[in-house]
Amino acid sequence: MHRNLRGDRGSALFEMALSLPILAVLLVGIIKGGILFYDYVTLADAVAVGARTMATSRGVTTACTSAETALTNAATNLVTSKITPTISFPTSNTHADSCTSLWPGDAVEVEATYPCDLTIPFVGNVWPGCTLTSETAVRIE
After folding, report:
1. How far, in Å, CA of 29 to CA of 91, rounded?
2. In 34-44, which positions are buried (b, 16+ CB within 10 angstroms) versus exposed (e)?
3. E strand residue ranges, 59-140
């Protein structure tokens, strides 16, 4: 039996060994990006729920607390202790300047931030300090 010393036996295995880690990191990056997008959509939906609660809470002394609670309860699959809700009142309002003095037609801005994690194995954190932010402005009904 004659052996060819210059043959290409094993070259496919060598090429696969070179490309597999790159493909694995790319796949994990795509999955992490999908999770990040899902977290953003969840946060945006939760802010919308909080804003709706705030818009319909005229006459309630705990309007801001109710809106923040509705926001964090609506943020399913997120760590609620990491959500930072903020409720503010634009200076253009004629009446509303706090949670206890809400007048119909005045604006309220509901915002929430959530830290994101884009740590990819063997690469590290590709976006340090990443923070998801969603904001909605509503009129008091």
Report:
1. 42
2. eebeebeebbb
3. 84-88, 107-115, 119-120, 124-125, 131-139
Residue 59 CB coordination number (10 Å): 8
* Structure confidence at residue 29 as a pLDDT band (50, 70, 90): confident
HSE at residue 69, side-chain half, CA atoms within 13 A, is 6
Q: Could you read off the pLDDT of 81-113 as tens digits, one per residue?
A: 999 999 998 877 766 667 877 888 888 999 999
pTM of the model: 0.82
Strand intervals (E) in 4-56: none
Where are the chain's structural domains? 11-139
100-135 as b/e, with b when 16 or more CB fall inside 10 Å? eebeeebebebbbbbebebebeeeeeeeeeeebebe
Q: Do residues 113 and 44 touch, judged by C-beta distance below 8 A?
A: no
User: What's the mean pLDDT in 11-25?
Assistant: 89
- Where do we find the tokens 């809400």? 102
- Given its phi and psi angles, is residue 124 left (phi above 0), alpha (psi -120 to 50 degrees) or beta? left
Question: Which has the closest alpha carbon to 67: 17, 110, 23?
Answer: 110
